[in-house]
Protein: Transporter
Amino acid sequence: MSSRNIWTHKGTFLLAAVGSAVGLGNLWRFPYLTGENGGGAFILVYAMTIAIVGIPILIAETLIGRASRRSPIMGMKHLTESQGLNNAWRSIGWMGAAAAFIILSFYSVIAGWAVHYTGLMFSGSLAGADAAAIGASFDNLLASPGLLLMYHTLFIVGSGLIVGMGIHKGIEGSLRFLMPSLFLILLVVLVYSLMVGDAAAALSFLFTFNLQDLSLEGWLEAMGQSFFTLSLGMGAIMAYGAYMSGEASLTRTAFAIALVDTVVALMAGVAIFALVFGSGLEAAQGPGLMFVTLPIAFAQLPGGSILGGVFFVLVIGAALTSAISLVEPVAAWLVERFGFSRPKAVALMVGLCWLLGLVTVFSFNLWSEGTITHQLFDRSPFDVLEFITNILMPLGGLLIALFAGWALSRDAVLGEMGTNAGWFSIWQFLVRFIAPTAVAFVFLRTIPQIEG
Ligand code: PHE
Ligand code: NA
Structure:
């Protein structure tokens, strides 16, 4: 039975969780958020939230997964029943699955843009193009539902194929090849950017700070980013945790995941800003930083077409190893709950996600500003989806912290955490008081945005 599946090695969970964590959040979202929110000040707050909120919740989510040894939905059912707890806790499983489903639907569309840019780069068609032409080519991509749909389909089918082959052959097998390759590519891109770009400007932008540069919005963005980047609150880590060896240390593994994820984000930040500043471009470009500003820099640089292509391959690979962790929790549930074969469960999950992805695809063209759909919600349907996940993620994280901190029996928690008393009490304090307070704060700030 699939719920009895365990990763092949003691360290495989770490590999899989790093694969999940490192993705568009590091390469695309982290640099543009840093660029928009004052550089070093944002990074400082981000690092703090990773340490006192992200890591404790990461431990809690892994713990719940491993204690239940089931998919998030069935696992929460099992834990609440076997411990005689309130049924309401089961919402953690359902909300996680819903969030995973929604996130995969747009994650795939955005990863699809990287597929397009890989082609543009390697074919050399942007070489020497000016900023206006490159901006226009991005606008053209977004204006074309057909193109977006094709890339979205390619990407999501690729993720489905991997998960469909099972956790050993599919997920472990692909990670064992992809993760070292991705790290190597990142190193190559970093070295290139340090050689041809303005490394000094990038380092001073990222590592010197003036706390006044950071608005309250920036603080909240930093907290949201720490959830997104560590894959928290979506059942992804819980599902992978269900397969984790009982011998691996939860604390040590969580520290390692957070460390690698942060280092990768910083390496990507240094590489991207060295190229951007080296070409005299601006940091605060928002989501277009990777898809417009960076290609403008590559277009002018020696070897830019090839290195740019290599960079976008990295983006696709990192996104792929994250996407599979979004397919797994829902697919595993379909297998456990309805007895579907794995390929059938994956096909159902991926098929429905593909369908929901159309909402994002059309948000940039058929349903963009000025159309009735846009007016109906006063924002694009894609923004609505993103907004829903921005609520589900912290809410899931909050409940996970409370469940592990207060509801689960001491025996169950100690059984997973081991007996290292020092770490245990620090973790318990953070997960009981600090993380919930911090998350509640973000959450209360998000609600008023419903008004518009
Ligand atoms: N952590 C991933 C990233 O940084 C995104 C993700 C979120 C993946 C949730 C899985 C689950 O890109
Ligand atoms: Na990440």
